[in-house]
Design the sequence.
């Protein structure tokens, strides 16, 4: 039986590894990582945290054009009232459930990118999230994630991993053959489980297919060792995180980052944004959970001097329809605003809010191509040379300061 490398990697990532260690997935190995030591200057000291808002977040009730009379006309029942809106200026406000993030806004650490989307939008959950995570056009299919392509020539065996997914969910933008990506609930459980990985017999008669499994085993144990050592010697950030599922995931991210675990990308997720009915209550609860976790994470990174080296970006498969439906909810839509947080962020608004008077079948028309965000991360944050297959020629947004501050001595490195 013969297997090409990609087929076997998919088999190992999806089946073998969780069988060996429940809750741990190593989707791709880089056999030549020791030879690929030419890494971007900022991949060593900057961190990207991606936050997936699963289900399609309603942008109109997140960043609210409350002075536009058409907003209430489109949403007579679920439109937010003035008491539930925090005015940010420029005739825009945010849902009051996002109040924990107002300090970041006041400090100039938060930027709302308006109208993110793409031409010929797709309203299928599965296809649209695939578009966002691969960076593709709506009429093409790409297998590898946009981050996997961006980082493929910069994998470094000295890291614990190239990416860490916390709390389940797929690897999304990190999916690809050339990255080492871990999936964990928390570092302590990961280390315990890694110690129970059975040794794979090695010998002259070992089949070629088992060589990858042996490498996976070695890599899991090595990653666990690095994480365990860093966590034990990490600083105490002293921040109490919300006792929510997302709050706990943010707490794990804070522990990994403040301890100096070497990994450039962490992915978090929060589900439930597919608000077809009873949206006001559901959406406010979700935004409160999101903002509470992110505010605590920001405080932990500020306390330990790592905030200037961290960039947090939300993303979702799509926004929601501008017009409410008959169940006091919203259906699958298109463009939506997304949040960027970090000490190197230029606070404020970026781009232009979609015109509520120029809808396309009750959908907002996007005003900013989502790949401009990817170009910003690639070229301005990690300071990598642009790849043709990442941002697809999109120009970076002017939303980051020219240079982040140098790491402080208590950064955990």
Sequence:
């Amino acid at each position: 039986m013969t297997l090409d490398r990609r087929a076997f990697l998919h088999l190992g990532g999806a089946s073998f590894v969780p069988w060996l260690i429940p809750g741990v997935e190593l989707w791709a190995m880089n056999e030549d990582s020791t030879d690929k030591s030419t890494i971007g200057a900022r991949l060593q000291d900057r961190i990207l945290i991606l936050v997936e808002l699963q289900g399609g977040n309603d942008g109109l009730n997140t960043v609210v054009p409350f002075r536009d009379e058409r907003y209430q006309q489109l949403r007579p029942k679920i439109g937010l009232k003035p008491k539930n809106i925090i005015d940010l200026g420029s005739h825009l406000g945010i849902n009051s459930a996002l109040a924990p993030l107002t300090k970041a806004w006041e400090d100039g650490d938060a930027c709302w990118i308006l109208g993110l989307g793409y031409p010929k939008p797709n309203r299928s959950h599965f296809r649209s999230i695939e578009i966002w995570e691969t960076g593709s056009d709506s009429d093409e299919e790409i297998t590898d994630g946009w981050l996997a392509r961006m980082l493929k020539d910069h994998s470094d065996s000295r890291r614990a991993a190239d990416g860490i997914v916390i709390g389940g969910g797929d690897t999304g933008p990190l999916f690809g053959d050339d990255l080492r990506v871990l999936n964990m609930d928390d570092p302590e459980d990961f280390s315990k489980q890694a110690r129970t990985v059975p040794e794979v017999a090695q010998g002259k008669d070992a089949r070629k297919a088992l060589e990858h499994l042996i490498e996976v085993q070695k890599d899991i144990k090595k990653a666990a060792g690095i994480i365990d050592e860093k966590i034990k010697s990490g600083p105490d950030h002293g921040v109490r995180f919300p006792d929510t599922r997302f709050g706990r995931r943010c707490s794990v991210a804070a522990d990994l980052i403040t301890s100096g675990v070497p990994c450039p990308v962490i992915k978090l997720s929060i589900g439930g944004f597919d608000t077809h009915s009873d949206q006001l209550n559901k959406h406010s609860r979700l935004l409160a959970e999101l903002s509470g976790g992110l505010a605590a994470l920001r405080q932990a990174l500020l306390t330990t001097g790592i905030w200037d080296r961290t960039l947090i970006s939300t993303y979702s498969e799509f926004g929601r329809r501008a017009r409410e439906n008959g169940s006091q909810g919203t259906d699958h839509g298109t463009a939506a605003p997304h949040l960027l947080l970090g000490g190197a962020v230029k606070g404020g608004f970026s781009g232009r809010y979609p015109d509520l008077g120029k809808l396309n079948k009750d959908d907002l028309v996007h005003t900013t191509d989502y790949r401009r965000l990817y170009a910003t991360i690639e070229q301005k944050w990690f300071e990598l040379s642009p790849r043709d297959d990442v941002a697809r020629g999109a120009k970076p947004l002017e939303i980051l300061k020219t240079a982040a501050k140098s790491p402080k001595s208590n950064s955990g490195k």
Summary: The longest strand covers residues 110-117. The chain has one domain: 5-381. Confidence is low (pLDDT under 50) at residues 1-39, 404-413.
